Write a sequence for this structure.
C-alpha cells in the first residue's frame, strides 16, 4: 500500500505514535502479505492518522503509526485479526522487537 | 556504527523520542558518512539513550533517537556540527522530511 511507503501527513500535535521496531528472521514466510493486510486494517480504525514503514536490507524494520488518542490505539490493539498477527509475530517472524507508545508534542517538516 | 543497526536498549519510560522520517533524493552525495558522523556525535551527548535507523530500497528512511529529557534534545539540536548537517539535509539530501518530538509513556518488548 502506498500509505506505508511515504511520509505520513499528520495534523498538528498533540497526537500519539506507536513506534514498532523489529528484527526479522531470515525469509519472508508470509510477512509482507500480513504487513500489508495490517496496514489496510489499521488504517480503517477510527482515529488512525497515518503510518510510516521502512525495513533495511539487514532486516531491521521501523514502523511508526500515528493515532488521535490512546483510545484509538487500544481499539486497534484489540482487533481480532491484529491479535492473531501479533501472535504470528512472536512465533514466526520477529527475532526481537520493541513497541513504544509516545505522545507527539511537537512536529516540523520541510523543505 | 553498530548502534544504528539494532533495536535500542532503553530504560523504563518516561523518556523522549525524536522521530525523523525522510525521503532521500537519488544518490549518496556523502549522506552515509554524514549520518554515521551524526550518530557518533549524538551518542556522546549527555542524556542520549539510543538510536534506531533504517532506510528501505526506495529511499524512505526512519531514524528514531531516544533521550532522557527535552533538555538533552535541545543540547543536541544546537550542536554546531549538527546544525551544519541539518542545513545540508535541507539543501542536499532530503527531498522531504518530518521531525516529531514525542514523550514515550509506555514500552514493551519481546520475545
Amino acid at each position: 500500500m502506498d500509505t506505508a511507503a511515504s511520509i505520513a501527513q499528520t495534523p498538528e500535535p498533540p497526537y500519539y505514535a506507536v513506534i514498532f521496531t523489529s528484527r526479522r528472521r531470515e525469509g519472508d514466510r508470509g510477512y509482507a502479505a500480513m504487513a500489508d493486510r495490517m496496514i489496510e486494517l489499521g488504517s480503517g480504525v477510527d482515529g488512525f492518522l497515518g503510518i510510516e514503514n521502512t525495513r533495511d536490507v539487514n532486516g531491521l524494520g521501523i514502523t511508526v503509526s500515528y493515532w488521535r488518542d490512546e483510545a484509538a490505539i487500544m481499539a486497534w490493539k484489540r482487533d481480532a485479526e491484529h491479535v492473531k498477527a501479533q501472535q504470528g509475530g512472536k512465533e514466526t517472524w520477529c527475532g526481537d522487537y520493541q513497541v513504544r507508545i509516545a505522545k507527539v508534542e511537537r512536529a516540523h517538516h520541510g523543505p
Q: What stands out?
A: The first helix of chain A runs from residue 31 to 42.
